Amino acid sequence: MSQKNPPISFVDNLTPLQLVSLDACTRCMECLQWCPVLDVTGDESLTTPEKIRIYSDLVRSQHGLRAQLFGRPEVPREVLEKLTQALYTCTTCGRCGEVCPVGINTQRLWPALRAKMVELGLGPIGGQREMPGIVAEKHNPYGRPHSERFAWIPPEVHVAEQAEIGYYCGCSGAYTAQPMVAGALRILQALGIEFTLFDDEWCCGFPLFITGELGLMEEVVRHNVAGLAARGVKHLAVSCPCCMFMLQNHWEYFNGSPLPFDIVHITQIVQPYIEAGKFPLAKELDATITFHDACYLSRGVRITEEPRAVLRQFRGARVVEMEHSQSLSRCCGAGGGIRRAYPELSIEMARNLMREAEAAGADILVIDCPACYERLHLAQQGWESRLEILDLMQIAAGLL
Ligand code: SF4
Ligand code: SF4
Q1: How far is it, in rounded angstroms, from Cα 263 to Cα 231?
Q2: With bands split at pLDDT 50, 70 and 90, how would you rate the model's confidence at 1?
């Protein structure tokens, strides 16, 4: 089956730099050494240079000189289907782009190519297809009741009606990593920081954006921005790296105007208190700990030092680094919608990360991302591991 002269552009979704980057791949294959998916599947037909080759061939055949002179050739359906499979068998971890000698920013490229697959009716895949309907109805991608979004807030934590500091919780924090977000609020309160929440907070849009589904984006972003602005927020604190990436890089575009607040990570909020010697941890932690740099924290928003500054406040703890850390950290297997499309593959990736933490001699794998938190806990079930998986602010709050 083939698609006859598709009335569709293969270039309107790409920036000029992304278009150039399609031609820049030298097929050096360095990125293959770093792909967490390839580590598990061993399938080299789904890798970064293959995705780039197929898409750039499409651009050339549909928009090149020959196409302009003689018309567009038909695009074989099987080529588009192969490309779709390759684009969605990926966590969008960005590790391939990090090591790419010609600097192809894959973490930014993949969502743009996926959006094109959605436009063609080929993406997203598997359980990802249900997400827009679930988000539209429940305002979170997990299908959980909206009324329970903030049910986890510790009773002793005071949330102001209005404040300059806002906290954006995010769906993964609210529904799958509650000790993480509860820890963050306890720490804000312990530091004497007055903060507010938007009690009708919706999904930030990241799971839709990353799977190429852009239809609801304006609605969810504008709803959140208006609600936070109405509470007087000038600085919005975020724990989830994927939310942070989304808010920082894409909310302004979908909002249609500049945001009335800036975006800060929770570890950046506490940084001045640490520097001033006012981070009030009373207890000690007798354990060997290692920190996992989440893909969208280290490679997405380039935060690696601030979480380690918090780690250094854990008196008594022995901090070790894994073989791969900071901008080259291993992916936990949760990202890019792969949990819904290929759950077993994502679990294997999570176990590879845990193996690396164990090899470093850690008792506790400290994470700072709710998607990692959910995936690593799930991957532990039915698997022999002595590791404890704990969130950074969960530990800090437990040491108050
Ligand atoms: S983004 Fe990550 S999972 Fe996707 S191809 Fe690159 S290294 Fe592999
Ligand atoms: S590392 Fe970069 S240039 Fe080399 S094959 Fe991968 S994408 Fe292409």
Answers
A1: 15
A2: very low
